[in-house]
Amino acid sequence: MVRPFFMRLQAQGVIFNSFIRRNAMYEKQISTIKKHLTVKEDEVLTTSLDVANSFDKKHKHVIEVIRKLINTPECPSDFGRSNFRPSSYVNEQNKEQPMYELTRDGFTLLAMRFSGPKAYKFQIAYIEAFNQMEKGLQSSKQLLDELLTARPLWGNIKRYMGLGLSRKEVCLLTNLHKDTVRKHLRRMENLGIIAPPVNLKELQAKVQPMLPGMEA
């Protein structure tokens, strides 16, 4: 009776170790994919070039698939424009080449055209990477909202800059010297308030010490 018990225990250990290894590989894959995701205007994006590299496809083939998707009668024009955004990159020959920026929905639709076990694994990993990036983005926005609540002046400056006002006009509206406004803008840019958000951990390290008892 003892031996079968240990045999079962050993078998379970092998299964558990195999699960741990697979999970570690999966997390590593997600981490790698996240490096290819970017944030633009509060939205997580990837590119057709990164998708081609991840799925081991020729980029021109991925471009062809995207263009077919966009031009198919079943694809609303608004969806195509919103989720497949024309862009470009410079290749190794220093030549500008076409590329598309993809939203989560754009990637999901595109990935459905790729089949096979490897493609399926990358589809799941990409979606999870999008999830994690979007969750981090939301946390960053929440943290920055708390900071702007604590610093009404920064909220006003952000609003003025969003209206397209010049620094001189911001100085007049805030009744501050140009050097003071420049200092505030530099700090706001560093925190990602008027620039693409920084890494969430870096943002937390910078913002949290500033929240209690902040000056306007």
Category by helix and strand content: alpha+beta
Read across the widest sheet, the strand sequence of neighbours is: 1-2-4-3
Distance between the termini: 74 Å
User: What are the segments in which pLDDT stays under 50 over at least 5 consecutive residues?
Assistant: 8-22
H-E string? HEEHHHEEHHHHHH
Gyration radius over CA: 24 Å
Estimate the strand proportion: 5-15%
Q: What's the number of helices? A: 10
- List how many beta strands DSSP finds: 4
Approximate shape: elongated
Mean pLDDT: 77
The biggest sheet, with number of strands, parallel, antiparallel or mixed sense and barrel status, is: 4 strands, antiparallel
Helix content: 55-70%
Can you walk me through this structure?
The chain is of the alpha+beta class. The chain has a domain of 80 residues. The protein contains ten helices and four strands. About 7% of the residues have low confidence.
Structural topology:
Blueprint: H1 2-34, E1 38-40, E2 43-47, H2 48-54, H3 59-71, H4 77-83, E3 84-90, E4 96-102, H5 104-111, H6 117-150, H7 152-162, H8 167-174, H9 178-191, H10 200-207
Antiparallel strand pairs: 1-2, 2-4, 3-4
Helix pairs in contact: 1-6, 2-3, 4-5, 6-10
